[in-house]
Amino acid sequence: MSYPHLDAYSRLLRGAHEAAVTGEVWPASPRGLISASWRRSLAAGIDPDGGGAPLAWDPSRIAGIRDAHPLRPLLPLLVQTLTAMADESAHVMIVTDGDGRVLWRDGNHAVMRRADQVGLADGHQWAEDSVGTNGIGTALATGRPVHVYSEEHLMRVLHVWSCSAAPITDPDSGQVIGCVDVSGTARSLHPATVALVGATAKLAETQLAVRMHERDDRLRRRFEALHTRAVLLSPTGRVIAGDPAGQLGERVPLPGAGRRMILRDGRVAQLEPFSDGYLVRPAPTAAPPTLTLSLLGDGPHTARLDDRELPLSLRHAEILALLALHPKGLTAEQLSYLLYGDDGNPVTIRAEIHRLRAQLGDTVAAKPYHLTCPVEADFLALPRLLAADDAATLARAYPGPLLPRSESPEIRRERDELEAQVRARLLRDGAADDLWTYAQTSGGRDDFQILERLAALTADPRSAAARSRLSS
């Protein structure tokens, strides 16, 4: 990126940077990309006075890590595209993995010696939560090519550097597997640099796609020789053959070889290894276990699976309730928003899901997060009971509101709707026993209308208790 007034922009950045790190109101903000990155970096605890990127890998391991990385075959292409420019213009070319750890480096030798001083070298980590705002970390955080001009870096030691970087997405897995970067100590990189690294990343993705299709063709030929009605998957779960109608979508979550799975069309299937991929076949007729959730009332809240009853923390109960309410699945971002609103953090959700899966195994699947077995839940049964002409059964089935201690916006909405419907139905059709049962719940204990109805039953001994509650 080229700035027509670098001196003025540098002054603006210095003032904004000082205000950002001291928690003051910024006198003038840098561009939105950088402002957002500063906020993320400061929230991650990055020290603006830090000395550079930390070492993530022992140097003795780097050779093996490089050889195993999917970008290894494309290194000559990347080097040929960027290294000549890096050497001629006093810059350095960097290739990282998907977490911002430097795999390869080449370019101008004098610049590389200076790069060693800040950790812009093999094995060091340049993710935003490790070193703050920088070309590599911010490109990985935003998922697009970026340029970071000197004072736009959060760490002051990096203010002599400028860099352009672009993420590389593997078309096979759909995951970001690396980043290509050109960095230098010149005050500003050439305006075409960010376009060049972006084009280089796209070129790498194109080559990865070509290799992927070649592997698919080889696997498909072996599959066709079987003359089977199974579905063929790639090692990453992409559907390659056997699903002409597209019922399974482009990708199937992999539960592990030999494990049962519920496909998006509702079929129960089993995964089998085949050559370099997998086959999905109809599972034996035995029904998958049912997950039973008890989440109404004051608790304890539990999940039952395979005759095992598991106590649930409030957070795990909330997650299971939301997944039961959204059977098609939720991303980490969606779950975070439904649980915490705008203050949610997907990283927290991923950690909680990891702990929940330690209890429930593959019952909770990912991409998106969803429940893989039939679900029975006390709160899900309420709409059916509300539709039936049986107020007594409804009252017995309602020990209280859904997760009454939950502050999740989505669960509060569901809780309030169910409470209002149950209350209205019992007020309309409930006998004295039904009203008394409801009056023992946290929602009905001090309900004026319910207690008035009970107090009016002069021949019923419970009317005295109702009148006592009304007068207290």
Question: Mind sketching the topology for me?
Answer:
Elements: H1 6-22, H2 32-43, H3 62-68, H4 75-88, E1 91-97, E2 102-107, H5 109-116, H6 128-131, H7 135-142, E3 146-148, E4 162-169, E5 176-184, H8 193-224, E6 231-233, E7 239-241, E8 260-262, E9 268-274, E10 277-282, E11 291-294, E12 302-305, E13 308-311, H9 314-325, H10 332-340, H11 346-360, E14 364-365, E15 370-371, E16 375-377, H12 378-387, H13 391-396, H14 409-429, H15 432-439, H16 448-455, H17 462-471
Parallel strand pairs: 11-16
Antiparallel strand pairs: 1-2, 1-5, 3-4, 4-5, 6-7, 6-10, 8-9, 9-10, 11-12, 12-13, 14-15
Helix pairs in contact: 4-8, 10-11, 12-14, 15-16, 16-17
Produce a short descriptive summary.
This protein is α+β, with helices and mostly antiparallel strands and 472 residues long.
